[in-house]
Amino acid sequence: xxxxxxxxxxxxxxxxxxxxxxxxxxxxxxxxxxxxxxxxxxxxxxxxxxxxxxxxxxxxxxxxxxxxxxxxxxxxxxxxxxxxxxxxxxxxxxxxxxxxxxxxxxxxxxxxxxxxxxxxxxxxxxxxxxxxxxxxxxxxxxxxxxxxxxxxxxxxxxxxxxxxxxxxxxxxxxxxxxxxxxxxxxxxxxxxxxxxxxxxxxxxxxxxxxxxxxxxxxxxxxxxxxxxxxxxxxxxxxxxxxxxxxxxxxxxxxxxxxxxxxxxxxxxxxxxxxxxxxxxxxxxxxxxxxxxxxxxxxxxxxxxxxxxxxxxxxxxxxxxxxxxxxxxxxxxxxxxxxxxxxxxxxxxxxxxxxxxxxxxxxxxxxxxxxxxxxxxxxxxxxxxxxxxxxxxxxxxxxxxxxxxxxxxxxxxxxxxxxxxxxxxxxxxxxxxxxxxxxxxxxxxxxxxxxxxxxxxxxxxxxxxxxxxxxxxxxxxxxxxxxxxxxxxxxxxxxxxxxxxxxxxxxxxxxxxxxxxxxxxxxxxxxxxxxxxxxxxxxxxxxxxxxxxxxxxxxxxxxxxxxxxxxxxxxxxxxxxxxxxxxxxxxxxxxxxxxxxxxxxxxxxxxxxxxxxxxxxxxxxxxxxxxxxxxxxxxxxxxxxxxxxxxxxxxxxxxxxxxxxxxxxxxxxxxxxxxxxxxxxxxxxxxxxxxxxxxxxxxxxxxxxxxxxxxxxxxxxxxxxxxxxxxxxxxxxxxxxxxxxxxxxxxxxxxxxxxxxxxxxxxxxxxxxxxxxxxxxxxxxxxxxxxxxxxxxxxxxxxxxxxxxxxxxxxxxxxxxxxxxxxxxxxxxxxxxxxxxxxxxxxxxxxxxxxxxxxxxxxxxxxxxxxxxxxxxxxxxxxxxxxxxxxxxxxxxxxxxxxxx
Length: 900
Hints:
The chain is of the alpha+beta class. The protein has five domains: 1-32 and 238-377, Multidrug efflux transporter AcrB transmembrane fold, CATH 1.20.1640.10; 61-201, Alpha-Beta Plaits, CATH 3.30.70; 383-417 and 589-750, Multidrug efflux transporter AcrB transmembrane domain (Multidrug efflux transporter AcrB transmembrane fold, Up-down Bundle), CATH 1.20.1640; 434-586, no CATH class; 753-899, Jelly Rolls (Sandwich). Helix 12 (381-395) crosses helix 24 (717-747), helix 13 (398-416) packs across helix 21 and helix 22 (651-676) packs parallel to helix 24. The two termini are 49 Å apart.
């Protein structure tokens, strides 16, 4: 990675061209991006329930509707009824309106001298009080009309438009909503002030979703950019530090949205946060690079060298942290819910392209940008005081900090038990938005704004002309009416017909006990009304249920109760299906529960394995998971305590938080491992690591908190919830990284990746011919091997020069070397694997007495004299053994030299 970063630094023109080509290539796809306001993204493809809904819609028609409601002290007045008729007739002429149900279209079933009168209820507006009284009596006495076209008191009536986009219009919902709004505007002209008219339905919901997505897309990303701008200005006070993250963020957003277009993905209530997400999260990698660059400048390094050092030191780190974040999003990608799957894939691409753009762009811009004025300044007082406070907590109050950590976990675990799941699109809006307010009004005025169907099927033709089968349907119908809102279906039509054919006597409001009579009644009924509830061969019948249940949990509770009633009370000869789009969407809650557990499990396993491989230590992987557990647990605990639902919008928060939190953990642990090699004590290593990492960790975390907080200005309530949770997760991740991680490491130190590789090589030498490690235990050798550096040498390369005053000692791991006198070019000795060279200068501080040149390609381990002295100071037994072995090797060579 270091070589790649150096090539990028040295090739600014190529890097710039590559960024432009990539951005332009993906930007082409932006033209095909669309806004997806449908709930299809919540439906699992291949789900039998989803397929069944499609089949039932083909039989009984689509239940997508839009309701226009009239409300007054009484609707039985001339001006209201005239407007109901006018609106009904005008609506029937709208393209896309399949059926209109209102007082002006429903059949008023009445017996008339042995025949059934199926005239329309509201044929004409009554002109006299007597006619109005008859209309009122006919309307309010018919149970089929109550809660569908009128309420029980006669103060509310509805005109329901059943919609069907038969021509697959691209902008159907927006167009039909405008047409409906024009009709409503027309009927309101000259209307009395005591009449209230409002409308709500699927086109309104979808159009408001589109408007909210447009609003959030336009406003949230600039707000997040402004927040990051302010944070960077406060921490770095340079123009490049402000410009670079915004520039790379914009390019990443353009590329990602274009990628979504190529993939055929729409922008929905979940994916609308992706631009803001990339802006905020992408800035963190820029900040780490800029922090290293500024650190180099403050140490007096010239500009180009500072950029090269930045690239070398931070390139690998940001690759690793980007990889962990990418892993987090990739765990969402296999999700069975399309909306979440698309989010995972698009966000993963965004993180990957942001990394590519960052490493190609940042060094190039820094080369072109004027060198900022910096000095070797001291640590700012607030950061210094904060760091010292952290260290006091870590060293003096570790038990208190640990106890508070455990308390937070316990409180969060209690809150987790209160979490509920929500998949209802209406719940995505804020409580005071038009859609939830109007749905609540509709629920109160006409029983329910949520519709679903109960479909009963038989394998026998004409089964639902049989009194026996219909008796079971009737029991279910009555149960639904009594317990779950308003049920409308074939049974009520049949009962009402039977009653009217028997002089309207109440005792005849029942299912006839004669199949032939039922068949006759079916011939009398209006064919269009009949087809809403029974199919042509009477093998299927449906009951439309309008319920006050709102939200996933209430709908699922209704679903479970209906199925329980069917199991306990009805015949097994018939098949019963509680179905409909709302039911299928609600059932997705079970999928969300399963997926969040699996995704978090995958994420924890992936991060554990990743860090374990990075440090070549299972212990390091396990230790890294402890501080990263806190943001996840607190996130879910806060959701439960505050009543924030687990939805498709809030689902990714914990996974994103885990992916981001582990980034700073890696930065800190790598820095700590490096400091551990140089410090006298573990505590000093942690203090130094805190001093070096506190500014980048603070700046990235505050930028993340500020950026995610901007989501609280969104139109969508679910996006606001995402912003709250993400900001909280970033705060808890910050506390974990700066407090919990050091607290753990102060008790259980780790070894760095290079150190572990050296330990591996060292273990091979212990059991072969390395006299340096004679009588040392494995753990003692591993400790020594943390005090040096592996170097790869080419053939004929001089790595020790005669007269040089360096004092390091070299252990030959592989290959052969010659010890040469420069004056005579005499080869004094040949050394190979397991031998040491430079031991005289290492012990005496005298200039080198000879040069050392490789005979072949070689790998050596250079042992730092100062670090070995630290080992001896901290571990005297190891030092005594090591220096005794060196003295023996030296004595042996002196003796051999004397013999020559």
